[in-house]
């Protein structure tokens, strides 16, 4: 750092007397390049209907910020050694190619000296107050006198070993020449990160660095680099001409932190002290304004070369189709395709979203309505997203960063009752035993379960599993058709083993018995089409009635493929009772194409000449007239008896 003197001292070779003549005016900086990556003509990343937004100035990444700052410094004859790491994770976000090259420490060494004494005394809270005061003064004012009196040759090696600083050593020219101790930019960010986590050092060191003064104890202007920043920041400054083994050798260093990063900007230049100070400040400001490391919830991002904007929620990129939906134009951070690929595919469970006037909680990647904060104890912070991302969830492309319904296997807790999602529906869990013990369950609003499938936002849960869903209940496999679990006795019909969601067997045994058990039905809904090894049936009164022609029923319809054995064994008992062999008495059928109405009684179809005896028109299931005419003649026709 610090005092200008013509006499060499034990601590350093001394600052040049020319410092007394340094101009107070900082040379004008070169103009900054336009922020962000230029937008190249490129296809829009996105699904149906997602148009690119008007572009705004992009927020630079740390790598772009460092490159820009270093280039501006180089243009003015200043060589910079820069390292930037994430304060929360320690991940290296950007560094120059020379970040591991050694330069003279100058007064940066005082950080290591302070840490040495704090550790020596057993921690900052055990260090005598007068020693702490001397160390703080040495750092804040970069005081050489204090450093000279406290320096010991064991300080630097011991701290280098403690914090894993492989490029940091004592001076090589003479003992005690601490200004010429050798450091690297990478080692200094490593030190700051690891020391900040060190309970003996960090709680004291980080606040002290925030108090660095504008002038050193010798009057030198140390208001440059990280010390010149606004907002959250702290720094240690160093300057001098002790880097005798490098060309150039005049040093101007600034290391410290912002709200996001630990940063080291070490500089060498032929001139002294400017423009090194000005260029260090430029680089520090660019880095502070950049956004890097783990992308944070709430940030707006786009991929370099593409125009689609996303807002990050629960670690996932949620597309933005219009700025108005998220409060107006926002700063956008440009990230790489690699960084984009590292984001979550869908938001983390438990993430709260707001879209328009509706609040949601993410479970299994889907937005589940929150009608009241009561189940959660109090209002929670939410991330505002485009309502289109909710309404278009799962339709394809970028809209797939939210699912329309939770992923199979998701556990949710609604008012103390636990469910497992299967086919988009909440299947009650009466015991954790089938799952091998308690599992994590995302708390949701019980109203979302009660109102599942009734329409609008409530449709992000289905009332019953989607047709075709495979379930595994205690080792027995079922396939859902019309809301009911139909036994699978063999995978052959389905071309091999398929994924099946494990559920509580009690949910199958109690299917359709009321309350929470009604998220499975005992029997398929009337009108459900089934395909059993190529033979198609339509369910009426719980029984499969043969479909001899699609034309008479209005054309081909979707039919859920089931095990043919479930048809042949329908109604014989146990799990086979999720299909009846004959329709329930009182089931009304309409023969097509004649339109004749019949009612089932004892398994046989009886003609209904009038609705009057039945209290008026009743629901009917349309079936082929031939199925009624050939009732009881064998094979597929035996699911109706002869009258």
Describe the structure.
Among the domains are: 81-289, DD-peptidase/beta-lactamase superfamily (Beta-lactamase), CATH 3.40.710; 529-639, no CATH class. α2 (109-120) runs antiparallel to α3 and α2 packs across α5. It is α+β, with helices and mostly antiparallel strands and 643 residues long. The protein is built from 14 helices and 32 strands. InterPro entries: Beta-lactam/transpept-like.
Give the topology:
Layout: E1 58-59, H1 62-75, E2 78-86, E3 92-95, E4 103-104, H2 109-120, H3 129-140, H4 144-150, H5 155-163, E5 182-183, H6 185-197, H7 202-209, E6 233-240, E7 250-258, E8 261-269, H8 276-289, E9 300-303, E10 309-313, E11 316-320, E12 332-335, H9 337-341, E13 352-355, E14 358-363, E15 366-370, E16 383-384, H10 387-391, E17 411-414, E18 417-422, E19 425-429, E20 442-444, H11 446-450, E21 470-473, E22 476-481, E23 484-488, E24 501-503, H12 505-509, E25 529-532, E26 535-540, E27 543-546, E28 560-562, H13 564-568, E29 588-592, E30 597-601, E31 604-607, E32 621-624, H14 625-629
Parallel strand pairs: 1-12, 9-12, 13-16, 17-20, 21-24, 25-28, 29-32
Antiparallel strand pairs: 2-3, 2-8, 4-5, 6-7, 7-8, 9-10, 10-11, 13-14, 14-15, 17-18, 18-19, 21-22, 22-23, 25-26, 26-27, 29-30, 30-31
Helix pairs in contact: 1-8, 2-3, 2-5, 3-4, 6-7
Could you name the key traits of this structure?
643 residues; alpha+beta; Beta-lactamase; five-stranded mixed beta sheet; five-stranded antiparallel beta sheet; 14 helices; 23% strand; disordered N terminus
